[in-house]
Amino acid sequence: MPSGSTPMISVGDTELDDLRARLRATRWAAPWPGGGWEAGTDPAELRRLVAHWASGYDWRAHEAAINALPSHLADIDGTPVHYLRFDGEHPAALPIVLTHGWPSSFLELVPLAERLAAPSRHGGKPEDAFTVIVPSLPGFAFSPARPLLGGAEATHDLWHRLMRDELGFAAYAAHGGDLGAGITSRLAEAHPEAVVGIHLLAAAAPARHDPESLTAEERAYLASVATWQEQEGGYQHQQSTRPLTLAPGLSDSPTGLLAWIVEKYRAWSDCGGDLSARFSDDFLLTQASLYWFTNTISTSFRPYYEYAHGLTRRVERVEVPTALAVFPADLTRPPRSWAERTYRLTRYTRMPRGGHFAAHEEPGLLAGDITEFFRDHR
Question: What span, in angstroms and rounded, lies between the C-alpha atoms of 298 and 302?
Fold first, then answer.
């Protein structure tokens, strides 16, 4: 079992100066009539964030904070995996692996991980503690991308190897949202002997269903998904079909990179159109800086491309106990009956507030739901 922590990032002064020079030299797009967010990232808000990133944002402070986290590196048969480990405050703490999505990172899950590992510090009971493992997805931040498309061990199998072989957990829990929900679902489907239960923020669609069997609620849900895809799904289509056309611009321009991801934090969160209601400038710029300094925005598109091209298998049926938490501002809000077509669903929670980035937006609500669910599965 690993001990100690590994500092993960050291950005040289030359790299930092280059970032700031690029930001200050941004060639801004010709203005459109009006403004605001209707056609994409608001130019005025972007200019403000870029100015702060270039002159006011203290990367060194955030670099030190990242390096102070309990980071480790595992080698899974030649595949490096970065992860955080938060040991539970109780000797019988249940191991749990938390998986992030896009455009997120391991950093976004830290407030949730801290609450799960040390519940007594947040008004909970020590016996509800988890030992929390937070890996970085391959191609995100400090986990390198796999060298071959579809030719290496799938992410869910890497997670199982990490939990069982590297960390020695014979049985463990799992949680995920967005891309992490799919990985968590495949993990439970492939390794039900080890996974005691899963907690999700999104549900895989059933592999097959009879349209005649759909309830009115399910029909309304599928209509809302189609509307969302039409109005908001352009990023997904591009990342799934032509990621290498998109990658050079976002890897060369920090302003373009920031515009690409900050729109999602606004559109997908429960911020009421005001980014600052849920995210500080420094949070957003640290996420962008992680992508920039590790040069991983292009490799973060890989899961979209691989799934769209049949290199990642779809979820068929998950038989381990499953909980689904639905946040009101998330991308989709599946009804219970829809999730039950794919999962052995034993808990379904409609949250009062929060969005796609629930681990950052509402870590207390999310930690409480995870804790309640796994009380029966320890």
Answer: 8
Closest CA to 306 of 141, 150, 146: 150
Q: What are phi and psi of 31, to 5 degrees?
A: -70, 150
Q: Which helix (H) or strand (E) element contains residue 283?
A: helix 281-294
Nearest to 373 by CA among 303, 337, 306, 325: 325
Tokens of 283: 């949070």
- Residues paired with residue 130 on neighbouring β-strands, in sequence order: 94
pTM of the model: 0.96
Q: How far apart are CA 48 and CA 45, in angstroms?
A: 5
Domain assignment present for 239: no
Whether 334 has a pLDDT exceeding 60, the answer reads: yes
Residue 324 inside a domain? The answer is yes
- What does the alpha-carbon distance between residue 74 and residue 71 come to, in Å, rounded to a whole number? 10
Q: Which domain holds residue 71?
A: 66-209+314-377
pLDDT at 5: 79
Considering the chain, what percentage of its residues have pLDDT values greater than 70? 98
Q: Say what the pLDDT of residue 75 is.
A: 95
Please tell me the predicted confidence (pLDDT) of residue 4: 55
What is the Rg, in whole angstroms, of the alpha carbon atoms belonging to the chain?
20
Read off the pLDDT band of 3 (50, 70, 90).
Answer: very low
The structural domain count of the chain equals: 1
Give the integer Cα–Cα distance in Å for 353 and 278.
Answer: 12
The DSSP-derived string for 345-376 is EEEEEE-SS-BTTHHHH-HHHHHHHHHHHHGG
Residue 359 and residue 372: Cα distance in Å, rounded?
16
- What pLDDT is attached to residue 326? 98
CATH code, domain with 354: 3.40.50.1820
**Among 273, 259, 292, CA closest to 29:** 259
Is 225 inside a domain boundary? no
pLDDT of residue 106: 98
Q: Is the pLDDT of residue 151 over 70?
A: no
Q: Is 4 helix (H, G, I), strand (E, B) or coil?
A: coil
53 secondary structure, DSSP code: I
pLDDT digits (tens, 9 = 90+) for 16-57: 999 999 999 999 999 988 878 999 999 999 999 999 999 999
Give the 3-state DSSP-derived string for 168-213, with helices as H, strands as E and coil as C.
CCCCEEEEECCHHHHHHHHHHHHCCCCEEEEEECCCCCCCCCCHHH
Q: Is residue 25 part of a domain?
A: no
